[in-house]
């Protein structure tokens, strides 16, 4: 790996969403709208409005969302070089997303959609599990026609969210352009139901294009049918670096003959939203700055531990001094 002085740059691509974070008192709302607990379900504009209306009296907040967008935000908070490609509408939600990213020095490559910006109702159960009812809106209009070699030329890594697997033409088109331009490709599998819905296609993408795979234990099992350790072995045969996250047990990393088991930091979980996304932030930032794979995993774990102690997928400003101190110890 290269010296940290030659920091590499990372571009993310995925759904540009605004998360509306709702603290549930019980799981009745999930049952009411047929949302499988712990999953991401795509909903239309009408159902999205009904979910948000039904939860309007509950405690809630708003922040930028989307899996790859969360990862890129974490990289920017680590002071990494980053950009994001997505599509929003010129409305309140779209403007909120764009300004939030510009404020973090993220290069926003945001195209204008013809329908309202995407919104994810993020429903947080009392046991801290999160369930998404996602209206993609303008994010769903992102197409291969929007993309060009120029968009990717200034970056070293591409991070892509597994949710885009729903659009075969788009995700394969993105991966072809990125590979053509020499980028190292990182994929987060995103959700077990995404993997289950399109496992054959996803397997081909990993084998043909992807260098780094992030999966949690549910996603790894949906992908391979195996428990974490064996799933890690199988995924590592298909790409250069495989990571399986195992919750409070930490994470497993394998690349060729190199293997590391990284312990999690024991903390009280309030909300697991974004834990996997910011784990990827730490890991990819580490790679871009020449850290060992084990240190990359440790940094990912440090970020994940911070985010699960708060509501939402954003690590609060007051946590960063301690994170940077820990990062110095990993270099």
TrEMBL record:
One of its GO terms (molecular function) is kinase activity. Pfam families: PfkB (PF00294). Residues 62-317 form the Carbohydrate kinase PfkB domain. Keywords: Kinase, Transferase. InterPro entries: Carb_kinase_PfkB-like, Carboh/pur_kinase_PfkB_CS, PfkB_dom, Ribokinase-like. PANTHER family: CARBOHYDRATE KINASE PFKB DOMAIN-CONTAINING PROTEIN, SUGAR KINASE. Belongs to the carbohydrate kinase PfkB family. This is Sugar/nucleoside kinase (Ribokinase family). It comes from Mangrovibacterium diazotrophicum. The lineage of its organism: Bacteria, Pseudomonadati, Bacteroidota, Bacteroidia, Marinilabiliales.
């Amino acid at each position: 790996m290269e010296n940290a002085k030659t920091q590499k740059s990372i571009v993310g691509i995925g759904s540009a969403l605004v998360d509306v974070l709702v603290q549930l008192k019980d799981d009745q709302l999930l049952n009411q709208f047929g949302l499988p607990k712990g999953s991401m379900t795509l909903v239309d504009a009408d159902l999205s409005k009904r979910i948000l209306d039904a939860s309007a009296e509950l405690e809630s907040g708003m922040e930028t969302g989307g899996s790859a967008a969360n990862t890129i935000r974490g990289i920017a908070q680590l002071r990494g070089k980053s950009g994001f490609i997505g599509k929003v509408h010129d409305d309140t939600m779209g403007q909120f997303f764009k300004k939030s990213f510009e404020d973090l020095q993220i290069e926003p490559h945001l195209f204008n959609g013809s329908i309202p910006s995407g919104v994810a109702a993020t429903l947080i159960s009392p046991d801290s599990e999160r369930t998404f009812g996602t209206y993609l809106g303008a994010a769903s209009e992102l197409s291969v026609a929007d993309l060009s070699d120029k968009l990717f030329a200034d970056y070293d890594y591409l991070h892509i969210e597994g949710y885009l697997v729903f659009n075969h033409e788009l995700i394969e088109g993105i991966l072809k352009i990125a590979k053509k331009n020499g980028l190292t490709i990182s994929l987060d599998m995103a959700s077990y139901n995404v993997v289950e819905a399109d496992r054959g296609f996803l397997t081909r993408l990993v084998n043909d294009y992807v260098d780094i795979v992030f999966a949690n234990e549910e996603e790894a099992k949906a992908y391979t049918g195996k428990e974490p350790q064996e799933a890690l072995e199988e995924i590592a045969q298909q790409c250069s670096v495989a990571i399986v996250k195992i919750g409070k047990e930490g994470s497993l990393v394998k690349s060729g003959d190199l293997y590391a088991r990284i312990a999690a930091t024991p903390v009280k979980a309030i909300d697991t939203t974004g834990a996997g996304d910011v784990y990827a932030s730490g890991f990819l930032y580490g790679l871009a700055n020449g850290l060992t794979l084990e240190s990359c995993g440790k940094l990912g774990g440090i970020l994940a531990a911070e985010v699960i102690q708060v509501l939402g997928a954003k690590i609060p400003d007051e946590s960063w001094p301690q994170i940077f101190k820990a990062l110095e110890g990993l270099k």
